[in-house]
Design brief:
mainly beta; five-stranded antiparallel β-sheet
Length: about 475
């Protein structure tokens, strides 16, 4: 737009300089008087390298000083082709990316424009990164960065929010009694809490044949816990699951077993245990039902509760979780799967090692943290760093074992500020004090098999 002042009514010729081979700039019209606007069209050929290109717009009129405007043309990789697909198509609006970029190997980050919330690009190097931004309510926002090996990111579409067929089901709880007693009711992968006898509703049960599992737990007298399992139900949407009767058919007294936890730090470390139960066959095999969770204790000697062998079938598995927590310092988590509680009680549960990360400020136009995390061998899945400010700005970095490629994970928040569409207000400001958590996960065996072991650890701090 040309804005005349002081009574000027002459013609202004428009030109552009600084363009490179493969980038053209065309004005229409080439000269403006009235109307005083011209449209500038920038065209990039397919061979033009991705990058930022400075150009200068010139306005000239006889007898007057030239006026200029400096611009940057950001050339991004085209969407719609490549060996990587990232999809948010199944997500609701609060979980969809509003901005996305990728990194091929150790190269520069490149923004990608999606089509219908699907992003495509090509990874030629042995590893890759994907960064995207999600906006929450108000001014809340988060930057999420994932690092993969090439084989991991190209083996299948990276799909977020996979929609599932779910249904709403109703039922009734009976004979739930005792001070401090409540029930967890699970069906189709969803667990709800029942605090009293009467109706309950599960709104997100997955479709198909599932087992109805109930667990009555007393916080003051867990030895009185009772379970309930009714197998192979598949009511229609809005149908009935019947009655979870803790003294009727399909109910049983909980089995108790004494177990020992090793590698506990003792002292201020609190141990919290929880028990889940996997049931189901076919497409719905290994469906989780939550049984109970306990209050924290400092002793490594625990009493755990589960389903007696007489009430189990061959595809059932217990899954114990033990959380070892020191307030303000960190948490270690152990999850182990097994079938028979009595047999497993003879073996101690060994907590994974604690983490010893180093977190520093990498500097830049916003708060960029760097994590150096030595990983004990058991943490063979992923490592990451999360941090947030009081302004609800969150950054989460996650790298797979394939990307890390060694015993030490080094992750740094990328500087994305030069990319088109990026907004520094999406993340914590350089002066913000942030709370951070370094994370590592590991696994051995396969879920819903005896001996399957999942471990996780978190170390906390602020900067």
């Amino acid at each position: 737009t040309v804005n005349p002042t002081g009574g000027f009514a002459g013609a202004v010729a428009l030109t552009a300089t600084g363009t490179v081979t493969g980038l053209t700039a065309a004005f229409n019209p080439l000269s403006v008087t009235s109307p005083n606007t011209s449209t500038l069209t920038l065209t990039a050929t397919s061979g033009l390298a991705v990058g930022a290109y400075p150009i200068v717009l010139h306005g000239n009129s006889t007898g007057l000083a030239e006026q200029v405007v400096n611009l940057t043309v950001n050339v991004n990789a085209p969407s719609g082709s490549g060996n990587v697909t990232v999809s948010f198509a199944g997500c609701n609006a609060t979980l969809k990316a509003v901005w996305l970029a990728y990194q091929d190997g150790n190269g520069a980050w490149t923004r990608v424009i999606g089509t219908n919330d699907v992003y495509q690009f090509n990874i030629a190097q042995s590893k890759a990164g994907v960064a995207y931004v999600v906006l929450g309510t108000g001014t809340a926002s988060s930057l999420r960065v994932f690092y993969y090996s090439q084989s991991e990111i190209t083996s299948a579409p990276l799909t977020f929010c996979v929609p599932a067929t779910i249904k709403t089901l109703n039922g009734t709880v009976a004979n739930l009694s005792g001070i401090g007693t409540f029930a967890d009711i699970s069906f189709g992968g969803t667990t709800i809490a029942a605090l009293a006898n009467g109706p309950f509703q599960i709104t997100t049960a997955k479709d198909g044949l599932n087992d109805l599992v109930g667990w009555m737990h007393s916080s003051t007298a867990p030895s009185t816990d009772r379970g309930f399992i009714n197998r192979g139900l598949n009511p229609a949407n809005n149908g009935s699951l019947g009655t979870v009767d803790f003294t009727g058919a399909n109910s049983f007294a909980a089995l108790a077993a004494a177990v020992t936890v090793t590698n506990s730090l003792g002292g201020a470390e609190q141990l919290v245990q929880g028990m889940a139960y996997y049931t189901g066959t076919g497409a719905n095999a290994c469906t989780t039902a939550q049984l109970y969770s306990s209050a924290g204790v400092t002793t490594p000697n625990l009493t755990v509760y589960g389903v007696p062998a007489a009430n189990q079938v061959a595809t059932d598995y217990h899954s114990i979780s033990i959380f070892a927590h020191i307030t303000g310092t960190g948490t270690r988590i152990l999850q182990e799967d097994f079938q028979d509680l009595t047999t497993r009680a003879a073996q101690p549960f060994a907590l994974p090692p604690a983490l010893a990360p180093t977190v520093t400020d990498a500097g830049g136009p916003y708060k960029r943290l760097m994590l150096v995390l030595p990983r004990p061998a058991e943490y063979n899945l992923v490592a990451g760093l999360q941090y947030f400010s009081t302004a609800s700005k969150i950054v989460a970095l996650t790298a797979t074992n394939g990307w890390i490629g060694g015993s030490t994970a080094t992750l740094t928040t990328p500087d994305l500020s030069a990319l088109a569409g990026w907004d520094n207000t999406w993340v914590p400001a350089t002066a913000d004090v942030v709370s951070w958590s370094a994370i590592a996960n590991g696994e051995s065996g396969t879920a819903c098999t005896s001996g399957h072991r999942f471990v996780s650890a978190v170390a906390n701090g602020s900067l």
